[in-house]
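user: can you give me the structure for this one chain? tokens are fine.
assistant: on it. calling the predictor now.
[tool input]
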Amino acid sequence: MADEKKRLDSNVAGNFFVDATCINCDTCRQLAPTSFEEVGNFSAITQQPESRGQIQQAYQALLACPVGSIGVEHSDKPLMQEAMASFPLQLEDEVFYCGFNSEKSFGANSFFVEHPDGNWLIDSPRYLKHLVEVFERKGGIAYIFLTHKDDVADAEKYAAHFGAKRMIHRADVDAAPNAEWIIEGTDSIQVMPQFQVIPVPGHTAGSMALLYKNRFLFTGDHLWWDSAQKRLGAPTRLVWRKHVLAASIQKLLDYPFEWVLAGHGDRTRLPADEMHAQLQGLVERRRSARLSP
């Protein structure tokens, strides 16, 4: 729980606050963008939530925060319970954002796909009773897709509980050495009729994206939406090999998709042609940066 004695001075006065344990992972800013902003090296409450919807979003951020850095002076238990019950958050149709981001993956997002041929977990949230019970009601988890070695978190616990098969690339297998399904090489693989695995090495040697229904692209730390600049972004640091990353970004131009669902960085939905144009813009910016003196 957040400590009011460690409350950051960058917070505006009011009920909600962020304390000095914040790791600036962006989770709260994604969930409650009207209330939280980045101030210096931390997130902070720059506008206290006022409407019921804004307050619920702030409680969602409080619950999802991987290190418990968000607190309240006075808790509204019914609204807190509503926020808890809202997870996993439905994004569209059978695709959900799990919430309850894990400190083990530096607060990375994880996702859930409810599917008649077996449900999928993409990367891992914290292992919590609430999520376990929700997943059980939805039929369990058959597959756990691990985008790369940094965001494995509690995947092993979910796999053990549900008997799920974990999928990871050979180059990142040290993060899940007992994974049941190892992906080899750099060629895309249609693992099931609606699911395509696309190796995208660069951030790590074994980074992968998962394309579902040619609409939803789960990208891990390979690609995200930059909400400040209103454009797609990709890593510029903590990169295994920059030229390989650039090629992997360009590789995605061959695939149609409308959603970018990232581990770190914001998620967004655009019409497929606009998304393709955004991706082409990112490729061109990266090319120009490499050619600049």
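assistant: here you go. The chain has two domains: 4-84, 88-291. The mean pLDDT is 96.
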